[in-house]
Design brief:
alpha/beta; five-stranded parallel β-sheet; 10 helices; 11% strand; Oxidized Rhodanese, domain 1; 10 strands
Length: 296
Amino acid sequence: MTETNGSGGGPGAADSGAESSDVADSAAGIVVPIAWLADRLDDPTVRVVDVRDAWEYDAMGHVPGAVNVPFDTFRDREGPDAGTLPGAAAFADLLGEVGIDRSDTIVAYDDTNGVFAARFLVTALVYGFEDVHLLDGDFSAWKRADSAPPDPVENEPVAPDPVAVEPMRVEGPDSPIIGYDDVVSLLESPGDDVVFVDTRDADEYAAGHLPGAVRFDWTEAVDPDTRGFRSKSELRDRFAERGITPDRPVVLYCNTARRLSHTYVALRWIGFEDVHIYEGSLTDWRERGGDLVAED
């Protein structure tokens, strides 16, 4: 179960939180520091996506040049694809409307430690946008960062220049997502040494989780001081404490595939290659009558 799709550009970002100073390498990993983006705001091939609600984008300002793609616009429970994926045509139209095509370098952010922007990133990967990244730190971190530009906030909405984007979806082993049948098969094949990771909180996990799953609350990857990721070394240690190691295939789930997206980015950033997402997560699992284990 090898996962090969991911962010383009080369080695990962520096081994630190949002205020990393090691940004001399122009290559971008799946997570990019604030300084990396600040140095490239004038690059027309680097497109910044703000996934906050439209009222936040309009009333509170945004990263200079950022277009607004609110979280709810790329989630659709009634769409043609599994879970809350909107469908290839809908996502291609959405990004085309804000002037983003497949040749662009995309950096997404929110103001909630990156969890909503991470969901955008995963959705973009599913639909064939390869050069996508998460800002290390959110909008609040950007505004206070020493490495941000002198005028870190732009208040006027960006008027996009729409482009045509052909729909596509990554299928097979290159896709980050797996479905119900894959999960059942993996649970029935313990010899594969797959680790299922529940990214919800302790109470949710105790109420019912997949058989054999370990818990890693997505917020454990967040550095409360920087609002971005903890250092790579600390993340590796925290994952290893739960038996989540690079030599084991990883399957992530939560309730609706939002929180797991942040953990997916964290794992890819620290070098895990065999990471997959159960897109339907427990919403799908319960609807199909799947077994859950409750803690006493």
